[in-house]
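ping. complex inputs:
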Amino acid sequence: MLELKDVVVHYGVVPALKGISFRVEEGEIVTLIGANGAGKSTTLKAISGLLKLKEGSITYQGGSISGKGAHMVVRQGISQVPEGRGIFANLTVEENLSLGAYTRKDKSKINENLKNVYERFPRLQERRKQVGGTLSGGEQQMLAIGRALMATPKLLLLDEPSMGLAPLVVREIFKIIREINKMGTTILLVEQNARMALSVAGRGYVLETGQIISEGSASELRGNEEVKKAYLGH
Amino acid sequence: MDMFFQQLVNGLTVGSLYALIALGYTMVYGILKIINFAHGDILMIGTFIGLVLVTKFHLAFVPALLVAMLITAIMGILVERIAYRPVRTADKLIALLSALGVSIFLVNFAQLVWGTATHPFPANIGGDPIILGEVHIGILQIWALGVSLLLMAGLHLFVNHTQMGVAMRATSYNVDYARLMGINVDNIISVTFAIGSGLAAAAGILIGVYYDAVYPVMGYSAGLKAFTAAVLGGIGSIPGAMLGGLLLGVLENEGAAYLSAGYKDAIAFALLIIILLIKPTGLMGRNEQQKV
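pong. complex structure:
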């Protein structure tokens, strides 16, 4: 479904990705784990079109999406929940959700999506007239995921959904991620919390200073001594 | 008390015009984080366009106002395309220099075409003033106040109740997040410049008619006052620009009446300094998040 080939991204002259290649197949949950600064967020931004590639290519459903602007990539069915959730703190919950469906023109489908999001996250419905900035961290994450679902994405890119959340909330969010995947959405999950990520993902890649140093099924990675030592904490 | 109310009316009139101009500064700043220093000169060109439509094409005042707003809006889009878009990712200082370049160009263009003299604005919208007790409300004041409030109400509806308006506020909050929603930020920026420039043309024409004077450097003082109003209200905030404009107009007129007319501008800028000392983000500004 999605394939990156030798992708190189620079911030100015500083290389952030030094030629990474990986694939995501339809229906999978694939995780990209690694420490802070390894290039995980950069990878997602390169896919969603926020960052330009210096070299390499990204193909999605058989066509190239490298070099397309971010607002065009969304239209192809790739939605990103950015690091730090990326909600519009100055807009109401409802306005945030309506922007999630910005690229869709079919009113009935938008309303159906809105109903589904409110069913999945009843808290958002209660707070639909509140501005996003007044929500708790967990609610903001739900809003960010709900907003991405408003576009009916085929591929969902999640950047650190566990960041800054209490363990109980993290568990809830990961339960929701699994459910979204079961409904047919492919997921590429970037996480520092490798343990949680490998518990939901089928496969994973380990990123270190802009390079993929290890890959395999989630159970292989969980058993990998180096991964254990560096990312699982024992 | 009569003088107080008379100055209140005068202040609200001028203030509503400041507010119209301030909206252009604040909307552009909200999205691009640059001060469009050519804004006052775009206003000036818009005023001359209105004048030409009235004197050469013999349009009535309202059609001339609307056509001038439209032409100036298109000009605003062109200014952004030519002078700001190519330097958007460069240092903010470059955009500032580009803005000054546009400003100098527009003033010289106007001097070349219309000369340096001051032109009267024969709008033919005379009429008897409304007299409430001792307070006179001139017909031009009613026009200025009425048109400004109507345009601001329209902008308010657009920004809060249309999808494009919501997208505009989203873009002003964070450009990257907006792009992830599928918002074409380039289009939003064009619309922002179009609206800001159109409103400036309306304000300029109303100022031209009110003072019966149109001249190539009229954008400087109008622009400076409106910029003050935008900062006063909180740059980047649309309701802030409206509030800042009205407040500035009222305070400088009351101050001029009770202290001395010579202090009018001093009062405006002293007010700005005081607000910035007490509340640096302006009356309705929000704290900018610093991104690492």
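The domain at 2-232 of chain A is CATH 3.40.50.300 (Rossmann fold).
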